Amino acid sequence: MTEKKKLKKKKEPDITFYHPDLLAVPENERPYLKGYRCKKCGQLDFPKVTPCPNCWGEEFEMVPLSRRGILYSFSDLYIGQPGLNTPYICGYIDLPENVRIFAMLKGEVKTFKCDEEVELTTGPIRMNADGLPIISYMFQKV
Ligand SMILES: [Zn+2]
Question: For residue 134, what pLDDT is reported?
Answer without folding.
Answer: 82
